[in-house]
Amino acid sequence: MTALHDYLRGQASDGLLSWARQRQAMVRFGCTCFQVEEAALTLGILPARYQRNRETIATADQLTLLHSSVAVVGCGGLGGYVVEELARLGVGHLVVIDPDYFEEHNLNRQLFSLPANLGHAKVAAAQKRVAALNPAVTLHPLQEALGIDNGPELLAGVQLAVDCLDSITVRLVLAEVCETIAIPLVHGAIAGWYGQVTTQFPGDQTLQTLYQNRLEGKGVEQKLGNPAFTPAVIASLQVAEACKVLLGHQDTLRHRLLSVDLRQMQFHETAVPGQPSEQ
């Protein structure tokens, strides 16, 4: 490890390690991409792929993200963008859960949906994409439906779950599982021009409050559909929330619901009924 550290110090320029030097270190020392990135960040050296992060995310925080583990539940419209952005952000371990295969109606909005992927598992496409995008990130594809019985096992070891589901029933199950294993949950939902985001911590019961009178299987998106832009916007807000939770920031949407109207270009924040208005 000392030799690797000395090599990285010698190869860094302006506190940055280029991808070419990172690959050379992997070959020279027989290390994985994750191990080289971890070593560089430990030394305060930033892999050059993250150089546009460093005025927003400190190098020490980048290391925290590398050591973080996040479950993305649902790999469709929201989930594809969430997976993509978490991988680009440098979150080192992703667990992606979705039982479905790509169909033609996914092509208008789902990031990993391509004509060549029709009939293929969504989680397999996510794994292939992340491996090509950021080799320091490990993605575990779980082609399973999350339920109350298998949920704790599927989410074992993660620090945070991101709700990218299209079923009220299943997202309430996810909320219950997160409560059981005591991890935060970043919720997102979309329908047509509209979406919403909130963050729930153990004990909050936020989703149970939001959906207490809406227990049908599918939400309003079943009627309104979803264009290409809505999942991209809401997923990005979810990833921003996930980043803050992982880095221990206090200014999250906890106890608050952010509603987005892209037709009127309005963002409206409300306190979740029955919840404290402040963290």
TrEMBL record:
Superkingdom, natural source: Bacteria
Transmembrane segments: none
Sample GO molecular function, one term: tRNA threonylcarbamoyladenosine dehydratase
InterPro entries reported in the protein's UniProt record: ThiF/MoeB/HesA, ThiF_NAD_FAD-bd, Ubiquitin-activating_enz
Annotated GO biological process: cyclic threonylcarbamoyladenosine biosynthetic process
The protein's name in its UniProt record: HesA/MoeB/ThiF family protein
Protein species of origin: Geoanaerobacter pelophilus
THIF-type NAD/FAD binding fold domain boundaries: 50-272
Gene3D superfamilies named in the record: NAD(P)-binding Rossmann-like Domain (3.40.50.720)
